[in-house]
TrEMBL record:
Keywords annotated in UniProt: Pyridoxal phosphate, Transferase
Name recorded for this polypeptide: Cysteine desulfurase
Signal peptide start-end: none
Organism: Labedella phragmitis
GO aspect biological process, one term: cysteine metabolic process
Length: 439
């Protein structure tokens, strides 16, 4: 059995950060990390794309499927009641993790679906659905949707489509030469016509942390609704969505130790209950006749059909695991690893780090461009040495274009990484240019 009382951190002196010794003990909880790749011990530096899963999460999902599997919110029998209780307990735990009420958490398949849910709900409101309660979500000609140049495609393409459907204008906040979103640039774009502002908390390319407080104040001052992409912050930083004062936020379970297929949409209760639904069908209604239907309050009105029950329960155990370790300690550990990454990369000729070079302004990831060598070749060279890093445009083509590159190689750290992992990446990168005849 692997439960939280048996994690390697139990009984260990609690410090402000993890350090290599504790990170190595934690690694013992992650079965996927104990393997070799191409004859080398796996060095996993791709948690920014998807994290590995500890035994407690794998066991939680398996245990539910073996003992409690039933349709939630639908049956009167004991198994259905037990499944429903676990499902809603998971919602409450995730809500507490990000500082909001449990009726403000909507289960989705991933963050992409959450953003699309909001965009399509606004589209339905713009088509007249939702009555007077949905008036504030209606968009049309003359209205503006604002995004930024740093966005993941999942926080850009849905807003492009919403603009196409409604006639609203899509505008963007440009990033500076380091690829950073600044409050000054935002103030030049956010204005009286801004109805929706969508932006990332932490860039998945540069690791830069956005000035959320300042930007949210600007948006709310003109009556705009704020949608925050928290995919790269929820797994890595202490997160209090209520304190950040955003109207909506999304994050994905698979980036924070949970399975794929589960995501979270946060929305203020009053807004969720005023929004017309996106997906419709069973389990989200109160009354259905042949002519019309009435919908349940949020969050159920946005959870049509059979839900991701085992995944939600596993996400709750992932959150429990992260809380036991301590999000502040995880953030400090990754910041130290990020500092080591930046310092080491600065000493390698022909390597450019994308984003700010001050580790205090970013999380523990680094995307690089190696002079004369394509990112995919860099990634293959690293993989041959057992180092797993992400290559490509990371679903952020506009940001790469702004920074003058088509692709980059990204190393992203997490609680189970050590300085030795960082050093393995640095050693690999240092050999790339000579291997390809570019040194």
């Amino acid at each position: 059995m692997h439960d939280l009382s048996e994690t390697p951190t139990t009984g260990a002196p609690r410090t402000d950060t993890l350090g290599d010794e504790e990170a190595l003990r934690l690694r013992g909880d992650f079965p996927a990390l104990h393997q070799s790749v191409n004859g080398h011990p796996l060095v996993y530096l791709d948690s920014g794309a998807t994290s590995q899963k500890p035994f407690v999460v794998l066991d939680a999902e398996r245990r539910y499927l073996e003992t409690t599997n039933a349709a939630v919110h639908r049956g009167a029998h004991a198994l259905a009641a037990a499944a429903t209780e676990l499902f809603e307990e998971a919602r409450a735990r995730v809500a507490a993790f990000v500082g909001v009420r449990e009726d403000e958490i909507v289960w989705t398949s991933n963050a992409t679906e959450g953003i699309n849910l909001v965009a399509y709900a606004f589209s339905n409101a713009s088509a007249g659905r939702g009555g007077s309660a949905a008036e504030r979500f209606r968009l049309g000609e003359g209205d503006e949707i604002v995004v930024t140049e740093a966005e993941h495609h999942s926080n850009l393409v849905p807003w492009q489509e919403l603009a196409f459907r409604t006639g609203a204008t899509l505008r963007f906040v440009p990033v500076d030469d380091e690829g950073v979103i600044t409050a000054e640039a935002a103030s030049e774009v956010i204005g009286e016509r801004t109805r929706v502002l969508a932006f990332t908390h932490v860039s998945n390319v540069t690791g830069a942390v956005s000035p959320v407080d300042e930007i949210v104040r600007m948006a709310h001052a003109v009556g705009a609704l704020v949608v925050l992409d928290a995919c790269q912050s929820a797994p890595h930083l202490p997160l209090d969505l209520a304190a950040l004062d955003v109207d909506f936020a999304v994050f994905s379970g698979h980036k924070m130790l949970a399975p794929t297929g589960i995501g979270v949409l946060y929305g203020r209760s009053g807004l969720l209950n005023a929004m017309p639904p996106f997906l419709t069908g069973g389990s989200m209604i109160t009354t259905v006749t042949m002519e019309r239907s009435e919908y349940l309050p949020a969050p159920q009105r946005f959870e049509a059909g059979t839900q991701r029950v085992s995944q939600a329960i596993a996400l709750a155990d992932a959150v429990r695991y992260l809380q036991a370790v301590g999000m502040d300690r995880i953030a400090a550990h990754e910041r130290a690893l990020g500092e080591r990454l930046l310092a080491g990369l600065a000493d390698i000729p022909g390597v450019r780090v994308l984003g700010p070079l001050d580790a205090a302004r970013r999380t523990g990831l680094a995307a690089i461009d190696v002079d004369g060598v394509h990112a995919h070749d860099v990634g293959q060279y690293l993989d041959d040495r057992g180092v797993a890093a992400r290559v490509g445009h990371h679903c952020a083509q506009p940001l790469h274009r702004r920074l003058g590159v088509t692709a980059s190689t990204r190393a992203s750290t997490y609680l189970y990484n050590t300085t030795a992992d960082v050093d393995a990446f640095l050693e690999g990168v240092a050999g790339v240019r000579s291997f390809f005849g570019e040194a």
